[in-house]
Design goal:
There is one protein chain. It contains eleven helices and two strands. By secondary structure, the protein is an all-alpha fold. Helix 7 runs antiparallel to helix 11. The longest helix is centred in the C-terminal third of the chain and has 26 residues. The radius of gyration is 22 Å and the shape is elongated.
Length: 213
């Protein structure tokens, strides 16, 4: 009589979720719930209690997973911006010409400007606050690095597709593009219809100056 192993006879069972994974999943759920409130109120006007009042979670639960407001807001922005940093990967990977890459890049950039303005406002608010709140600086620096690498991937791929070479380094390219985007975020509040087209025009003006044959 053949002896079969337990693994061969027992049905597949889902892998257990570790305590660490459960905590991280709850922190993500809290972050997603908090982002709307944070985007509407900004850094200074938001407290853990305010976030709890505008979510399905109690103040005690929020405080259990995040030690204070800075811990929660840093986590929320880091979570959101990490996803943002991969937003353009498909465009970079699939574009077959410089024009196609620019069209895809600007399409996604103006889309996020329109659809996710509160999140971008929160990011710029947090970055400004990091000049005064030392606890924020490590997360802000890490996010800035992710976004800088994102812009550099786009610029490098554009150079490959157009047989050109960047004329600036990665920090400079990021500063220029991010500066234009921040202006668009500020301008969107005053003139939402004009801001996306103005951002597109300014990027198209700057981009050719960042590369040379």
């Amino acid at each position: 009589m053949a002896v079969t192993s337990a693994s061969a006879t027992e049905p597949d069972r889902p892998a257990r979720v570790s305590g660490i994974d459960k905590i991280e999943r709850r922190r993500i759920a809290l972050a997603e719930s908090a982002l709307k409130t944070l985007g509407e109120l900004g850094y200074a006007r938001t407290s853990l209690r305010e976030i709890a009042n505008n979510s399905e979670f109690t103040h005690g639960v929020v405080h259990y997973y995040f030690r204070d407001k800075i811990d929660l807001i840093s986590y929320c922005v880091r979570y959101y911006k990490t996803k943002c940093a991969r937003r353009y990967d498909e465009v970079v990977e699939t574009a077959t010409s410089g024009d196609e890459l620019v069209t895809g890049f600007l399409g996604k950039m103006t889309q996020t400007l329109v659809e996710e303005t509160p999140m971008h406002k929160l990011w710029y608010d947090l970055r400004a606050q990091s000049m005064f709140e030392e606890q924020l600086r490590p997360d802000v620096e890490a996010i800035d690095q992710l976004l800088e690498e994102m812009i550099w991937r786009i610029l490098s791929r554009y150079g490959d597709l157009t047989a050109t070479t960047p004329t600036v380094d990665a920090p400079t390219a990021y500063a220029l593009v991010d500066g234009l985007f921040e202006q668009a975020v500020v301008g969107y509040a005053a003139n939402p219809e004009k801001a996306p087209d103005l951002l597109t025009d300014r990027i198209l003006q700057v981009l050719p100056k960042l590369l040379a044959a």
